[in-house]
Amino acid sequence: xxxxxxxxxxxxxxxxxxxxxxxxxxxxxxxxxxxxxxxxxxxxxxxxxxxxxxxxxxxxxxxxxxxxxxxxxxxxxxxxxxxxxxxxxxxxxxxxxxxxxxxxxxxxxxxxxxxxxxxxxxxxxxxxxxxxxxxxxxxxxxxxxxxxxxxxxxxxxxxxxxxxxxxxxxxxxxxxxxxxxxxxxxxxxxxxxxxxxxxxxxxxxxxxxxxxxxxxxxxxxxxxxxxxxxxxxxxxxxxxxxxxxxxxxxxxxxxxxxxxxxxxxxxxxxxxxxxxxxxxxxxxxxxxxxxxxxxxxxxxxxxxxxxxxxxxxxxxxxxxxxxxxxxxxxxxxxxxxxxxx
Length: 341
Description:
The chain is built from seven helices and 17 strands. By secondary structure, it is of the alpha/beta class. It has two domains: 3-63 and 160-340, 3-Layer(aba) Sandwich (QueA-like), CATH 3.40.1780; 67-145, Thrombin, subunit H, CATH 2.40.10. The mean pLDDT is 95.
């Protein structure tokens, strides 16, 4: 299975640069994974595909203002640091640029020394480990000094940083937003509940694993970076009961999906647990935890296109993506939505 098998043509003008004024006003492409049939709807129609007793699963991670610009002590060189993974004891795994300027012992200073990062280990692909030095509360310092880590294909400045958070974002720790959830409003979620649909929350802190490009020709040789997840007992019980009663589990986003599939693969049921996952889902994978998936349109040749191809079939996905291009759907983080049913 070749990485190039998951390529498709995408005009640059279809890459959404800014969020729509109203979150739930995006378009919705509905793909039937069994028949390949495609329908064009609006996101508010999503409720029509849910039934009483179903469970909607949301990832309640909250994005940190994790992108920092500092100076290398001694030379004054400008260094970009993206905080990815909290390893405890103020040690963080980070993506850096330019990485070649950073060696063990290098200190980068942010905000005139309000925050300092000392390099403790050099890893591949621009990854460095830093020990952070600061006074006070780290997340308050990040709020002051950091920027929202928008993906590199977004060139517009984000006017309201809350638009790169879901309305239900709660647990701080992500380096990127679980973008499928950006379409939901509090009003729409209330309508979902009023219909008798359960809402369950899991947490997966989005890190490098989700948005790192695939740089190998053979899909099976790609290595995912690990990301931290949590499922509580209330969610586990709700999902197990949904299954037992013959109702649907509707996953919002590939991050929720990877969490649910990780837990089902490990335990054969949903259970209260936490840990690190590097699950890589591509065609041939048999889904154990979800029935429907609400997702955005993903980058060509990405692990996310591979995941949705595993669920709906590669031919169905490529046909749907080509249709979305033809119909001028908006792509990627601030783009339109897709339901695979």
